[in-house]
Amino acid sequence: MRVEIWADIACPWCYIGKARFEKGLAGFAHRGEVEIVHRSFELDPEAAPAAGTPVLEMLAQKYGVSREQAEAMEARVAEAAAGEGLGYRSDRMHGNTFDLHRLLHLAKERGAQDALLGALYRANFAEARALGDEDVLTEVAVAAGLDEGDVRRVLADPDAYAEAVRADEREAAELGARSVPFFVIDRRYGISGGQPAEVFRQALERAWEEGGAAVPGGEGIAPEDDAAAPGCEGDVCRPGTGAGN
Predict the structure, then answer these.
(1) Distances in whole angstroms, Cα of residue 53 to Cα of each of 45, 80, 113, 203
(2) Is 0.85 topped by the overall pTM?
(3) What is the per-residue pLDDT for 44?
(4) Which stretches of sequence are listed as region Disordered (predicted)?
(5) Closest to 239 (Cα-Cα) out of 181, 179, 194
(6) Considering all CA atoms of the chain, what is the largest pairwise distance in Å, rounded to the nearest integer?
């Protein structure tokens, strides 16, 4: 069984959803026969690279709210993260994630994709590290198991793995995925959002046992509502921003 997960490192519900999915997978009897593939999705491809913008400042500007309101938006997501035992800081930066996705494709070739994704999530959300800084990003990638020379060569070449990222994004569009996280089981079932762990466990079990049946929390691979507003609400993030709820 293959589970493909479209996500963005800037997406708090992708961070939370990864933890919930892993809990659901841990309760699945055939977990050893599940291949996990992480796919690229950019929520804010026009975001500034490098230093980026403080998340609270971005939220206030994006939604025309006060600093206090932006803090309240982030607090709701922080509470959900804490419920999964995850750290969550609102003093992080919001920036372009294209280079991070390129490194995830390098990591896939090296058998370290899941380790790197987890490290990037922790660095961004739990530690508020400046992933737009090449040295910081390299340090995180090396700690996750990548070779420093390989990492720096990819970061120095803007074309390295760029097409792989774009291919993932095209596939997301073809599948009708316009928010993340988006989970696809064997290209038959789609589950949108950072669902509870039990939803994922049940979905895996039913997909294993009943080919063609509907799965909990999803309605197959079907397009989402184009009228939905950008941003993060419920348990998904849509293009336009990668910050809190």
Answers:
(1) 14, 23, 27, 38
(2) yes
(3) 87
(4) 215-245
(5) 179
(6) 50
Phi, psi of 220 (to 5 degrees): 75, -175
H or E, element range at 190: strand 189-192
Q: Would strands 93-94 and 231-233 be described as parallel, antiparallel, or unpaired?
A: unpaired
- Whole-number Cα distances in Å, 238 to 36, 43, 100: 22, 6, 19
| Weakly modelled stretches of the chain, pLDDT under 50 | 212-219, 222-227, 241-245
Q: Cα separation of 13 and 29, whole Å?
A: 26
- Other beta carbons less than 10 A from residue 48's beta carbon: 13
Distance (Å, rounded) from C-alpha 102 to C-alpha 146?
13
The pLDDT assigned to 38 comes to 98
Pairwise CA distance, residues 28 & 37, whole Å: 17
Calpha distance 43→180 (Å, rounded): 8
Coil, helix or strand at residue 212:
coil
* DSSP H/E element including 232: strand 231-233
SS3 of residue 157 by DSSP: coil
Cis peptide upstream of residue 181 (ω within 30 degrees of 0): yes
Tokens coding 21: 């999915």
Q: Is 123 left (phi over 0), alpha (psi -120 to 50) or beta?
A: alpha
Paired tokens of 219: 């309605």
